[in-house]
């Protein structure tokens, strides 16, 4: 599979970036906000959902850079910057519109950790940095099967 390179300039684009980064893992020390450049950046290991096959038992991760430009302010909750080796799992990236085109981008991690970026506008890049490597571990989301079976029962009624 060819390396991924995406540019997000609106909320819909950002949702695509978020879907590709679901279950990416990142060390706290691999994230930085640089106020003088109005930039937030992170290096993550993203799970390659596109190549995941249920029955194969072999999955892939890729080293990926994520960059947000035009960031006016960054805040976090429960991040614990004093623990740079702490590993977080990214669940989603959300956008809350303010006075157009500004707003707040929120990175939601497991353990209720969040990073909120006040942005002038959405200007985000996701870029794979190298080849994929194999992993046996596929991220799981407790309760997914229950939701799927409830949906199946509802559609069968």
Overall SS class:
alpha+beta
Helix content: 10-25%
Beta fraction: 35-45%
Count of helix runs:
2
Number of strands: 11
Shape: globular
* Ends distance: 41 Å
Mean pLDDT: 88
Description:
This protein is α+β, with helices and mostly antiparallel strands and 157 residues long. Helices cover 15% and strands 45% of the residues. It contains two helices and eleven strands. A hairpin with a 4-residue loop joins strand 8 and strand 9 (114-119). The radius of gyration is 17 Å and the shape is globular. The N and C termini lie far apart (41 Å).
Layout of helices and strands, plus pairs?
Layout: E1 5-8, H1 11-21, E2 25-27, E3 31-34, E4 39-47, E5 59-69, E6 71-77, E7 87-97, E8 103-109, E9 114-119, E10 124-128, E11 133-135, H2 144-156
Antiparallel strand pairs: 1-10, 2-7, 3-4, 4-5, 5-10, 5-11, 6-9, 7-8, 8-9
Describe this protein with a few key phrases:
15% helix; 5-stranded antiparallel sheet; 157 residues; alpha+beta
Describe the structure concisely for a colleague:
It contains two helices and eleven strands.
């Amino acid at each position: 599979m060819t390396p991924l390179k995406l540019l997000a300039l609106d909320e819909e684009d950002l949702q695509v970036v978020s879907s590709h980064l679901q279950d990416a893992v990142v060390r706290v020390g691999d994230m930085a906000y640089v106020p003088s450049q109005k930039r937030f950046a992170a290096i993550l290991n993203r799970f390659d959902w596109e190549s995941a096959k249920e029955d194969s038992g072999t999955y892939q991760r890729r080293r990926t850079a994520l960059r947000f430009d035009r960031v006016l302010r960054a805040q976090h909750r429960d991040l614990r910057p004093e623990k740079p080796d702490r590993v977080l799992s990214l669940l989603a990236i959300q956008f809350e519109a303010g006075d157009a085109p500004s707003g707040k981008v929120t990175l939601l991690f497991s353990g209720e950790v969040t990073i909120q970026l006040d942005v002038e506008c959405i200007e985000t890049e996701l870029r794979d940095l190298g080849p994929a490597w194999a992993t046996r571990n596929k991220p799981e989301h407790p309760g997914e099967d229950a939701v799927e079976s409830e949906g199946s029962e509802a559609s069968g009624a």
